[in-house]
Design goal:
By secondary structure, the protein is mainly alpha-helical. It has a domain of 193 residues: Up-down Bundle (f41 fragment of flagellin, N-terminal domain). The chain is built from eight helices and four strands. The strands form two sheets. A two-stranded antiparallel sheet has the order 1-2. Strands 3-4 form a two-stranded antiparallel sheet.
Amino acid sequence: MTAIGRVTQLTVRNSTLGNLQANLHKMSQLQTQMSSGVKINRASDDPSGTADVLKIQGDQKLLAQYDRNAADGEAWLVTVDSALTTSLANLRKVRDLTVQGGNGALGSTSREALAQEISGLKDALLAQANTSYLGRPVFAGTVAAPAFGAGDDPAGAYDYKGVDGATVTRTVASGTTVRVDSDGAAVFGTGDESVFALLDGIVATLRAGGDPSDQLDAVDDRLDAMTTELSSVGARQNQVDSAQSLIAENTITAKTRLGAIQDVDLAQIILDLQSQEVAYQGALGAAAKVLQPTLLEFLR
């Protein structure tokens, strides 16, 4: 014979109230999801999903940092590119003036005019060599001081102030670092071997009545150095541009992944909530029939 457990009114009441409470809790969860727009409001809502959300949010923060790095690197490289382009134009003009200075028929007045123009271009080149971005010289590496001293600098005329091998870089992706500054010593030379000292020599030759044409090869060497560095800067700009495009794509992908895990289907939530409300009302009706009336209600 199978034993039948005794079911008391208290057992029925506790079971009914427990079911009603669970139903009400589910309604509360659905209402919270509908008002917040996300499925996971607490880690306990979906532990596995919470771990995925935290991972994706960490990736988003990293992508945002890469994006800031790339934007800053792009600004550095644009500044370097502009300075080099201007310097190339000035030095090409110096070359043309030097060729003119080789004309033995020029008088002293004409030679002085050429000397003054070349001297002015030298000052412009020095200013470009000391170009800075946000207070940081773009041709001096990690040094905060101007890349080159003036011609009358007691510490060394036109000496390069940067540190060899010290470069400014920006990380634009995992394992991808791009140099965003330029080696001023390689581009402009340093001290007596600098382009500035070279132009001073051309000016002195013109004023002395000599032929500066023999210094054209040295001018060409500096033009080649600037052109080479300008090409390098262009390649690095392309690298940063590619990184920015990839960052934008990955950012969209991360947002899509996060939405798939976290965002609610509003239409489905509304339908589930309505179904839960119907179930709750039905449970209340059933509970009213099952639970025994109180003594007071019985006396009525």
